[in-house]
Amino acid sequence: MSGLSKLGVFSLGVTAGAVLGLLLAPETGEDARAYLSRAVRRGVERAAEEGSKWVERAQNAAEQISDKAQDFTGRAREVYNDAKESIS
After folding, report:
1. Mind listing the pLDDT tens digit of every residue in the chain (88 residues)?
2. How far apart are CA 87 and CA 36, in angstroms?
3. Which of 20, 27, 56, 69 could bond 31 through an S-S bridge, CB–CB 3.0 to 4.6 Å?
4. Residue 35 in contact with residue 27, Cβ under 8 Å?
5. CB contact set of 10 (below 8 Å; sequence gap of 6+)
6. Which domain covers residue 63, as residue numbers?
7. Do 7 and 50 contact (CB within 8 A), yes or no?
8. Which of 16, 10, 13, 17 is nearest to 51 (CA)?
């Protein structure tokens, strides 16, 4: 399942949970609004945490790619210099 699909499923779950909570729990309007507010806040916090994890993973991947590209460039220079010396 892709990251976007997971976020969509998560959002759907939060929404369904909030609606079911409102329908099944006999609470006052103020209590229901407070519950819904807390549920949305938790959902937003969790989405932000997941987003931060994805950003960190992307940064790590970019660093690894950069390191490998630098290694490749260094090796290419060595091969070029060796070939240049062997021709001279």
Report:
1. 555 577 778 877 888 887 777 677 676 778 878 888 898 899 889 888 888 999 999 999 999 999 999 999 999 999 999 988 888 7
2. 76
3. 27
4. yes
5. 43, 46, 47, 50
6. 3-87
7. yes
8. 10
With vertex at residue 55, the alpha carbon angle to CA 52 and CA 58, rounded to the nearest 5 degrees, is 150
Per-residue three-class SS string for the chain: CCHHHHHHHHHHHHHHHHHHHHHHCCCCHHHHHHHHHHHHHHHHHHHHHHHHHHHHHHHHHHHHHHHHHHHHHHHHHHHHHHHHHHHC
- Measured over all CA atoms, what is the biggest interatomic distance in the chain, rounded to whole angstroms? 89
Helix axes 3-24, 29-87, angle to 10 degrees: 170
* Number of domains the chain is built from: 1
